[in-house]
Amino acid sequence: MFIMSKPWERFFYLLTYLSQGSSYLSPRAYAILHRMHHAFSDTEKDPHSPHHTKNVFTMMWETKNIYNAVLNRKRAIESQFERNYPEWNFVEKLGDSWISRVGWGLIYLSFYVLAYIYLDMHWAFFFLLPIHFLMGPIHGAIVNWSGHKYGYQNFDNDDKSKNSLIFDFLMMGELFQNNHHKRPNSINFGSKWFEVDPTYPVIKLLSRLKIIEIRKKN
């Protein structure tokens, strides 16, 4: 969708690690799985389709196995998927290490404990810790399960992609899956007037600030 200079690429690469923390996902491996998902959408070769798995948990377990195989270069990848993605081996290895994942988990736990002791946080909030630990996989599960199972279709894409309007704002536009599969290079996942993609104005702002350069305007 857009390109950026090497310094900005490194900045956002590091920001990705800091924001994802314990659930860090490799941009390279994620990009390859995402391209596979578009190429094989809702077929048996789709790395995360709700229509070829028993439930959301088995779907994400299969996704995890494919992701690890791609990450560790133990799976043959079609040449069209191995292109145009950023790589930073230091952050890749750091983010995927158990030391990093456990360390972030302890930071989250410490935050909750301090909030409980000093900010009068209710004890029930501790039940949110598993969600905090697994932010990335949970987000992926919601997008890939709901986005291909619930909602409506604006376009016939020869798959089962849907627009889950009610939950889309919480997923920052990513639940307009039917629109996205129709126009995968569009920076705006919304299509109709009532479909608001909250990430779109952020991308436009970054473009105006010359931080990114939009490759294709739709």
From TrEMBL:
Coiled coil segments of this chain: none
Any Pfam family: FA_desaturase
Domain Fatty acid desaturase: 23-185
Major location (coarse): membrane
CDD domains in the record: Delta9-FADS-like (cd03505)
Keywords associated with the record: Fatty acid biosynthesis, Fatty acid metabolism, Iron, Lipid biosynthesis, Lipid metabolism, Membrane, Oxidoreductase, Transmembrane, Transmembrane helix
Domain of life where this protein originates: Bacteria
Subcellular location: Membrane
Iron is among the record's keywords: yes
TM ranges: 102-119, 125-145
InterPro entries: Acyl-CoA_DS, FA_desaturase_dom
Its membrane topology: Multi-pass membrane protein
Family: Belongs to the fatty acid desaturase type 2 family.
PANTHER family on file: ACYL-COA DESATURASE, DESATURASE 1, ISOFORM A-RELATED
Entry protein name: Fatty acid desaturase
Protein species of origin: Dyadobacter endophyticus
